[in-house]
Write the structure tokens for this entry.
Amino acid sequence: MTHLPDRLFNTPLEQVPDFTFNEDVVRVFPDMIKRSVPGYPTIVENTGVLAAQFAQPNSILYDLGCSLGAVTQAMRRHVSHSGCKVIAVDNSAAMVERCREHLNAQDAMFQELLPVKVLEADILKLQFEPTSLVALNFTLQFIAPEQRLTLLQNIQQALLPNGALVLSEKLRFNDPTEHELLNELHLAFKRANGYSELEIAQKRRAIEKVMLPDSLEEHRERLYSAGFSQVVVWFQCFNFASLIARP
Ligand SMILES: C[S@@+](CC[C@H](N)C(=O)[O-])C[C@H]1O[C@@H](n2cnc3c(N)ncnc32)[C@H](O)[C@@H]1O
Ligand SMILES: O=C(O)C(=O)C[C@]1(C(=O)O)C=C[C@@H](O)C=C1
């Protein structure tokens, strides 16, 4: 398992293709997401802390859009309730293959971790089992906007009383000056992490049609429409935030 630096966008491309979670992205993903998402390590580790808080014995914990399983690993570091199991789901075959390797490596290093099943599947077609904790860590923004409400309704209905959804997303802002300020700060974060103007511009073009962020107000409204009873922001850094939604 080699972790390469993300140089995917550092040479000029005649046409920048739409971003997909393919082999090339998988190879550099840990470096890419850490250098692109302000607060990512804090969000991942504390999703484990939240999971321990909300997990109930003998229930399932879901990591939806698990990529290489960073959140699953954090859940396994923090949750030790009896009879719990993690189900990690991603529809990228390349991600799922590498995720299984990462989790096998974690199993080889630590004893008594929660059992985990990694599914290559579309989370929009999943039959959810009763669950105490669902994590959507930077996944909803890649789901077609018209399908987001149905997905959240399915999650809300599967959640046990006192369970929780942890939803982390990039945000857009309705106030143009707020939007510009927080986006500028995100660009400053990327530059501080070594990305060039070319890399930043080409990445923006690659994700602009496939990753569509909502505002905090849209998230709140949609979560309440899906049946959630409480929505709380527990973390924000620039234009990236994480919310707890209670069923
Ligand atoms: C930004 S990454 C998530 C990062 C990951 N949760 C983490 O914390 O490291 C988004 C992931 O969602 C997956 N994804 C997007 N749409 C999906 C769908 N409909 N079903 C399953 N996975 C999906 C992608 O393949 C990708 O791995
Ligand atoms: O907003 C950006 O510029 C990003 O690069 C964000 C983002 C994300 O939030 O998922 C986009 C794609 C990669 O998965 C890593 C980071």
